[in-house]
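Now for one record:
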Amino acid sequence: MAGGVIATGSGSEQDFPAKLTLQVFICTAIAAFGGLMFGYDIGISGGVTGMDDFLLKFFPNVYVKKNHAHENNYCKFDDEYLQLFTSSLYLAAIVASGGASLMCKKYGRKPTMQAASIFFFIGAILNVSAMNLPMLILGRLFLGAGVGCGNQAVPLFITEISPPKFRGGLNICFQLLITVGILVANCVNYFTSNIKNYGWRISLGGAAVPAVILLVGSFAIVETPTSLIERGKKEKGLKTLKRIRGVDDVQKEFEEMVRATEVANQIKHPFRELMKKPSIPPMICGTIIHVFQQFTGINVVMFYAPVLFQTMGFGSSASLLSAVITGTVNSLSTVIAIFTVDKAGRKKLLVFGALICMVAQCTIGVILKKYLTETSKVPNSIAKVVVLLICVYVNGFAWSWGPLGWLISSEVFPLETRTSGYFFAVATNMLCTFIIAQAFLSMLCHMRAYIYFFFAAWLIVMSIFVMAMLPETKGVPLDEMVEKVWKKHWFWKSFFKSSDIERPKAMVQLEHQEKPNH
């Protein structure tokens, strides 16, 4: 049983029969809670670093600077240990995503998501009970392991269970839940900031909630047919494919999956395979999209939104409320991408989103350069304009670079290098996030308002790259991405030779001749 039917669609030129079933919708919704875990942490870490009780217990030097009347506005939060609190998670996530890549391939996407929820739950318990900085950082490392496993498994899981026509919108549910997590965290921070002594513990402990939901919910979802077939469970894979597609006529898609897995299973060292010439195009595009995503400057806004608003002269509660406003804009704007990405395509959204972000960043930079000196506060009316511009910026990011970074990198790799290639994409994201998180407060101290022009320059670079080098992947079945995308691109097609096409086809044809039809 498919569990109900919501919509129908076909898969591009290959025309695989498929319906958007309730089963797929439920699996996507539950798996996307891995994104909510990630988003909650992004929002919560920025909020608690603005709470006096938290700073006084773990970062007393920052507390003194924050409340010093003559402290430089741009430098009051510049502390390497405070930055380590935020960024340590991403170092752990890099390591964990490597292990998760192997786990995804050997045991499946579902167990990897379960591991993510367990790691994240342990991290939340350590943080809520932290008595000193080492214990706090240890909790962050466990949270990082959860984020690394979740970010490795969830987008792959959603991509592989989705019909091609709806793949973009469903995958963006992961990013939507990230934004919801940020919003929930901002709301929690707003209400707990007024609870003396242990408000920050409530904020940090709340991370356990999405972890428990993902863990319990994971027992109700299916494994992806691709993963089942890849691990030799073809009969179960066929049954699962019929279940999630809502039709019995899945033979064509099933055979395509079998063909892809048979080719993939010939690859004994997938990480080594990534270094070969035909793997370079998806490797470059799948990883650089995450470099660009982080250098839009988004996590500067999301990690440190309360800090930024306090820098401009907002009080602690007002700054947290402003962060709630931007978080709301973030969540609502992501919904736009769900309904447009499979119609407008990936490239158009990326370019238009980058242009909006660039204009907003430059305007913010000009305003702060003029009004925010080392010791003065931004006039109230001007500060409100800056909040509005940040909302414009977040809106532009939320329906473009936010969701599409995860979507594109989960769909461009062929099966034989999908988990290993996606590991590099996730690791790149975590590494760049770590760099930004660790360096931002120091960059703000030294570059001041010019930091916004720094990120605006990156937005110009990434727009040019997308227009010239990134192929469109809208509606293309995953197992036909090489044939219909990379080999037709004006530049990347030079990385493929005729032998790269003919060898696998000939091999698979021979294999099918040696065994009965499915």
